[in-house]
Write a structure and sequence with these properties.
two-stranded antiparallel sheet; 16 strands; 36% strand
Length: 235
């Protein structure tokens, strides 16, 4: 592994997109504030021909394609504008099942991307998903994941995650920090684009994760992270 890392240092990273097709199995209905799905829910699939094709492309990629830099967008009043989503996020958290092992403060974004929306919460795919993480010493930590869809046709999702494990391995990489309001965020980049934006409290750590193809702009990632708000307001 060390030899691979040394040999790849300074080399261009090339991405091969997996040709997945978004599927929805069953019907989605709303009963009160609870979203109910019959069937498997939403998932992605690929045909054997698609899989063979992407494996061939991976093993024999050919010459690298030239990437043209896109002109910078003019910063207008509506550039990277977000939309309100606090009530929807709080309703999802309120309806989610929890247990003592997953009890922790949950933060939801008050603002999400214009194209984004929360995925429906189902029995097979709850949103948020509340679970337990074990650290290196096998100590359990509460955790949750809120999922939002940015581009359903391409299977691109982003989300918010939180855990009482305050130094999980995913946040161990090198990063920069940025002060926004009264919070200090850790910024994890991939080719100049934000992959993760994390924020720590005395009892937990929370982060916003970009889509696999990094569809959210750096401004959108920071604005979504800065809008994180407690799902259950303090009394």
């Amino acid at each position: 592994m060390a030899k691979i890392l040394v040999g790849s240092s300074g080399k261009r990273v090339r991405q091969i997109r997996f040709p997945a097709t978004f599927e929805l199995d069953g019907a989605v209905t709303q009963v009160g504030q609870q979203i109910v799905t019959t069937g498997l829910g939403s998932y992605v699939s690929a045909t054997p021909e698609q899989i063979r094709g992407v494996v061939k492309h991976f093993m024999h990629p050919g010459p690298a394609e030239k990437v043209r830099a896109q002109p910078a967008r003019k910063r207008g009043r509506d550039a990277d504008a977000l939309k309100d989503a606090l009530r929807t996020g709080r309703d999802l958290v309120r309806a989610a099942r929890s247990r003592p092992a997953t009890k922790m403060r949950v933060y939801v974004p008050a603002k999400i991307t214009r194209k984004g929306d929360y995925t429906p919460s189902t029995d097979t795919a709850p949103n948020p998903r509340r679970y337990v993480l074990e650290d290196e010493d096998h100590k359990p930590h509460a955790a949750y994941r809120l999922t939002l869809v940015e581009d359903e046709s391409k299977g691109q999702y982003y989300g918010v995650e939180g855990t009482t494990w305050r130094d999980p391995p995913i946040l161990a990489a090198s990063h920069q920090t940025k002060r926004v309001g009264d919070r200090t965020f850790s910024l994890y980049t991939d080719g100049g684009k934000l992959r993760l934006v994390a924020w720590q409290t005395p009892k937990a750590v929370y982060w916003v994760s970009n889509t696999l193809s990094l569809d959210l702009s750096n401004r959108e990632m920071l604005d979504v992270a800065a809008s994180l708000t407690r799902a259950r307001p303090p009394r």
